[in-house]
Amino acid sequence: MKSAIRWMAHNHVAANLLMLVFIVGGILLAPRVKQEVFPEISMDWIRISVPYPGAGPEEVEEGIILKIEDNLTGIDGIKQIKSTAAEGGGTVMVEVAEGRDPDKLLQDVKSEVDRIITFPLDAEEPIISKVLNRREVISVIVYGDLPERTIREQAERVQDELLLLPQITQVDLGGVRPYEISIEIAEGDLRRYQLTLEAVAARIRKASLDLPGGPVRTQGGEILLRTKEKRYYGPEFADLVILTQADGTQIRLRDIAEVKDTFRETDTFASFDGKPAAMVKVYRVGEQKPTEISLLVDAYVKEKQTQLPPELQIATWNDTSELLKSRMQLLLKNAGFGLILVFLVLGLFLEIRLSLWVMLGIPISFLGTLFFMPTLGASINMITLFAFILALGIVVDDAIVVGENIYDHRQLGKSYLPAAVAGAQEVGIPVVFSILTTVAAFTPLLFISGLMGKFIKSIPEVVITILLVSLIESLFVLPAHLALGGPRPISAGLVGAIDRTRRWFGGRLDRFIDGSYRRAVEFCLRQRYITIAVAIACLLLSVGLVKGGLIRFNFMPEVDGDQIIASLQMPRGTPVNETARIVDMITAKAQDIVAEYDAQRPADDTILRHLYAVVGGRVAESGPAASGEGAGGAYLADVALLLTVSEKRGVPAAEISDRWRRAVGEIPGIESLVFKTNLVHMGANIDIMLAQDDFSVLDESSQRLRSALAEYPGVSDIEDTYARGKREIKLRLKPEARTLGVTEEDLGRQIRRCRGSAAATGTQ
Fold first, then answer.
1. Residue 478 needs a FRET pair 20 to 30 A away by CA distance; which of 29, 187, 226, 603 works?
2. pTM, to two decimals
C-alpha cells in the first residue's frame, strides 16, 4: 500500500483521473438512479381470496378456509399460513420461506387450490396472486355538491386524461362505488306470469352476451359471424323479452320490473372538505420518478381547475413526493453546513488550501457512491437518503487524519511532496483499519432476513460504499493534491489577514496541547489505576442509565408526518347512519382544534390543507382508498387531516393529534378509536395473541385483558382484532314442509334470491 500511495502522489494526472471518474461518473449516472419514496420490496406473501357472497364467517371457515389449508400443508417452501374468515369471503395468506422462489411457489399453490372441487356451489373462483408493494405518488380528488354519477364520470375523465400523459402509466380510481344495474320485480308480477327470480335472471344472462359464430367461406372470401347482444345500460336491459304468451304477446322486462342505472348498495361514502368526492390515485412504475410525476399532476390540476364549472372542484391529496423532496433538501442543507464547518475549522488551525481539499472529500465520496448505486441495485429513497445523512458525520474523518498528518510533516521542515508521501504512509494502515471497523459495524445489517432486512438493506450498502470511496480518495487522491506547491510568504491585504488569523488560532491550539492537555495526559499515565476506575465507573453509569429507564429504548421511533388519521371501528352490524353520526362529531372536534391553532396565526394562514372523511372504508397509508369490494363495512370509518408541511406550520402533528384525542374523549358504544400520526407504520408496539376454541371464552378473556391494560399509565389505542359478528336469524324447516317436498336447499336458495328484493322493499 505504501508504494501505491507514493506512486499516486508522484503522478498527479492519475490521481486527477481517479477523482474525475468519481465526480463525472456520479454526475452522469445520478439522473439514471431510480427514485422512489420508499423501497419497493417484494413482500414474499401469496394471497388466496375466495369470495362467498352472503356467507357468514363460520360457513367460510368450514367450506373454504379449512379445505385450502389442508391442501397447502404438503407444499415445500411455505413458512407459515395465516387465514381470515369474514362475512362474504375468506383470505389465506401464505408466507414464502427464506431462499425460496416466490414465483415457483405461486404456481404450486395455484395447482393445489385448483384441485379443490368441493368448494360451495355459490362460492366464486379463487383469486391467487403475489402481494405487491405498490405505493402511490399522489391522489387527485374531484369533489363538489353534485350527484354521485356526475362526480364519478368526471373522475373517470380525469383518469383517462392522466393516462394520456407520457410519464404516467398506472392510475386507479378510488373512493367510488361500483356501477350496478338494478332490476326490481314486484312479487305480484312474478305470480301473475308464473315467473321466478331465477328464471328471469337466466333469461337476462342468455340474452346479454357476445358470442362468435366462426368464419363462413364464400366466393368473395371469408366472413366472420358474431352474435353481438351484450348490454351495458339499464334501458337496453329493459327492452329484453322475458316471456312470449300463447297469443304472441311479448312481455318485456320493463313491463314487470323497474330497471335503473345505479351504484352497488354499499355502506361506503366519502367526503372531501365536506363535499362528496371521488379519488384518482397515481402510481410510480419502473424508472419513473415521484418528483416528476408530482410536478406533472400539479400542473394538470391547475389547468383542469380552470376548465371545470364552479360547483365542481379538483385538488391533490397526500403528495408523497413531498417527503422525498424534504429529505433531499435536508441532505443538501446538512452537506452544505458540513462543508462550511470542515473548511472553517481546518482553515483556522491548519491552512486554507489543505482545508479546501479535505472539504472536497464529501462531494467526491457522495458522487462516487451515486456512480456505484446502479450497480448495487439501490435507489434514491427515504432510506438511502437517511444513509447519506448518517454518513455525513464520518465521511471526512479519514481525510482529516491524513491531511493533518501531512501538515505536521510540513511543520517539521519537509517540502510538500515528501511530506505528502510520508504523512499519508504513516497513517495509511490506521486509517484503513478505522474505516474497516466502521464497515464491519454496518456489515451485519446486510444479512438481516425477513421484511425488515429487505427494507433496511440499502442503509449498509450506501454507507459502506461512501466509506470505501472516501478511503480511496483520502489515501490516493488527497496526497497528490497536497504534494503540489510550496510555502509562500505572508502577503498583505485580505489573504495576509486570513493567514495571520489562522496562525493566531494555531498558536493558541499548540499552547493548549503543550500545556493543559499534556499535563492531563501525563497525570492519566501516572495514575493509571484511577484512570481505569473512572472509565469503568462511566461505563457502569451508562449501563445504569439505560437499565434504570432514564434513557429509553425505542426500536422504531415515530417519524412525524403531515397526516393525522383517526380510525373508528364500531360493533359489527352498526347502522351506517350511526357510524356517520360519530364521524360527524369527530370531524367537528377536528375543525375546532384547527380553528384554535389558526387563531394564533396570521390571517389566511392555516395549519390544515384538506380534510377527508370516509364511512364504510379506510384511508390507505399512501392515499385515500375508500372503495372496493370487501374494503370495509358500515362499522368502519376514517377521518384524515392533511396538514401543511411541518416547516410552515411549526407544530408537531403528534401535538395536534393529542389535543384532538382529548377533545373527542370517550365515546360510548364503539369498539376502538385510534389516532395515527407516524409516517412509517410498523404495527403496534405490543401484540398479545390469545387462542381458544370457544369464542365465548376468547371474547371474555380479551375484554378482561383490555380492561387490565387500560389501567396502565401511558397505554392508549388498545385494539381488539376479534370482530363480533352481526345478529343472525337461523332458519329451520318444519316437518310439514318436508312432506310438501321442500328441502333445506330450496329454503336456502329461495331466501338467498329474495334477500335483495326484501332489502329493496324494506320487507322481511
1. 29
2. 0.75
